[in-house]
Design goal:
Number of domains of chain A: 2
Oligomer: homodimer
CATH topology of the largest domain in chain A: Quinone Oxidoreductase, Chain A, domain 1
Number of helices of chain A: 11
CATH class of the largest domain in chain A: Alpha Beta
Largest interface: A-B, 35 and 35 residues
Radius of gyration of chain A: 20 Å
Helix content of chain A: 25-40%
Structural class of chain A: alpha/beta
Largest sheet of chain A: 7 strands, mixed
CATH architecture of the largest domain in chain A: Alpha-Beta Complex
CATH superfamily of the largest domain in chain A: Medium-chain alcohol dehydrogenases, catalytic domain
């Protein structure tokens, strides 16, 4: 099968012929229908902690082609979404309702077990997130998949595997925003837009979108933002205080980029007692003023929106059918696997929300 | 009446004759029985944001001597504790169960209303926290007092007005530590010891006390610590990992000092999904590693233990009567008002947990 392989980092993807291993007892072979390009993949293209070569990609949908002998959850022909975070089901995190923190979440790195992917020269190839969805097929643990109903279009369903649950989940699951709260979202890319529609679902009052790109802010309005601030033009903190007179800031803020200054901005936007939730991946330190913390402000991380895929998927599918979940609007372009590098270039330049690679089946 | 007055900051307290104003409609005049020396007072002695001259002190007990015409909550002769944080009862914070964040919490600064205290030369004198308890009498809003039963010794009751509720409240109210959790407490002064007994009340599993003073660590054991670490000798993070093999850290940590490095240590002690609660007042920035935040760690401030005095006092009084709340053991020494400066010197040197000034009545 064909896959996009990363040989060095920083580096670009090369389309290669790749073989998949034998289907293990609890493994499932999936024919990929669609896979989304996410900033997390882009991080690996510029610097990675994983063994190379590797096939990136962790947001996909497809159809089950084969199942291992011990697989009970899925059958051949099932439609599935690849879950950005697998779970073991037996560790204390899984058993305490936080499978997203699972110790054995399937982050296969091709070092301590036989590789599931092979290059034509016989070299093993590691799997990003135990998935590696930039490929025509994926061979993954059954706990890295979640079944969906067959009436859901697969190209849109792909987005349910990462960006949608990460953004909406941060609002509904991690922060548990109550109705009537004022919310600010810093960063209006794929995840930020989903924070915005999460805030809308939560019944938030003001939903203030902050970005430096007016096109993204327009899109933010379409997703439910009541107010937008271009922070390259306006002082975002000052503007929020003007939008919410006498409030001292928002009750809840979300950071959906992964930069030092935006994490600090999210905290600075909070009124007393408020909660900032950081979704973006930032591999450095952030600074917080101790005196503002003291007034019962809080900052917390959200991993993949604290998602529990098997619990949450029914909710997302119902929302989509009811017209309450924007999926179609998240897709900026549909491209082929051969166009994936150009797609990442556009993502890096901030020109697209989600590019989705479609595989002809 | 006699009171300890701060004329300049940095500076030392001087015992002066001070007059109190007329009792206003919702004010109460209290004959102070006992007042505790807290690190927050020490902060004002070295640098203050308040108008000087000022009488510090915000932890006290006493007996009601006079009440204003509109006071309904208290009567002459009632025993009371001065609450480190008053409340208005009508703002959104009070009405949403967070009176500690009250907008009009009675932080009288002597600038926008007639002073309640006067020096002999007629100059007004501001009230710390709307209280100013380093004095034979206090004239305060009725919402800055909480009634206690008369069987509770007043010297011990004084500590219920700040240190006890701040420490125990941070554990039970702010962080809401569940039974079975592993807890670390950084700093074993008056507030830290109360975090430890709060963790014991919560049914915590390991309660790990961290300090640089072996005497304080011995006291920590008496208050319920299961393990102690002298962080001037051992690497606290490494030691916690050894005490809790395979855990990755504690679920809950508390910072009860107010220093940059101890705030950062509290966060570094957390396992995935853990919560650090900062109680100490630190007027600078703290740094947090973004990648550790991402794993759903959280850091939050606790103001006076998120206390609601009128709700919580019954609980504390019952605990004390049942022998489940250590108050006697918190008092290192009983001194007179004239000895207050020497008491603060000992507090600054870390030689005492709580010095309590007793007034002869």
């Amino acid at each position: 099968m064909r896959a996009a392989v990363l040989f060095e980092s920083p580096g670009t993807l090369r389309i290669e012929d790749v073989s998949v291993g034998q289907v293990g007892p609890r493994e499932v072979l999936v024919r990929v229908a669609a896979t989304g390009l996410c900033h997390s993949d882009l991080h690996h293209l510029t610097s990675t902690y994983m063994a190379l070569p590797m096939v990136p990609g962790h947001e996909a949908s497809g159809v089950v082609e084969a199942v291992g002998v011990d697989v009970s959850y899925l059958a051949v022909g099932d439609h599935v979404v690849a879950a950005c975070r697998g779970f073991c089901g037996v560790c204390e995190w899984c058993l305490s309702g936080r499978p997203v923190l699972c110790e054995r979440a399937g982050m296969r790195r091709g070092v301590d077990e036989p590789p599931r992917l092979y290059l034509q020269d016989g070299r093993g190839c590691s799997q990003m997130g135990g998935l590696s969805t930039f490929a025509e097929q994926i061979l993954v643990h059954e706990n890295s998949l979640v079944r969906i109903d067959k009436d859901i279009p697969l190209d849109r369903a792909a987005l349910l595997g990462c960006g949608v649950v990460t953004g909406i989940g941060a609002v509904l699951r991690t922060a548990q925003v109550p109705a009537g709260a004022n919310v600010a979202v810093v960063g209006c890319g794929g995840v930020g837009l989903n924070c915005i529609q999460g805030a809308l679902l939560a019944g938030a009052n003001r939903i203030i979108a902050i970005d430096i790109d007016d096109d993204k802010l327009q899109l933010a309005k379409a997703f439910g933002a009541t107010d937008v601030i271009n922070s390259s033009v306006h002082d975002a903190v000052q503007h929020v205080l003007e939008l919410l007179p006498g409030s001292g800031g928002v009750e809840y803020s979300f950071e959906a980029i992964g930069r030092r200054e935006t994490c600090e901005l999210a905290f600075a936007l909070l009124r007393k007692g408020g909660t900032a939730t950081v979704i973006g991946v930032y591999d450095g330190n952030i600074e917080l003023p101790g005196m503002r913390l003291l007034e019962e402000r809080r900052i917390q991380g959200s991993m993949f929106g604290s998602v529990d895929f098997r619990r949450d998927m029914r909710f997302y599918l119902d929302l989509y059918r009811d017209g309450r979940l924007k999926l179609d609007e998240l897709i900026s372009e549909r491209i082929s696997l051969d166009e994936i590098s150009a797609g990442f270039d556009r993502l890096a330049r901030g020109e697209v929300t989600r590019s989705v690679v479609l595989f002809p089946n």
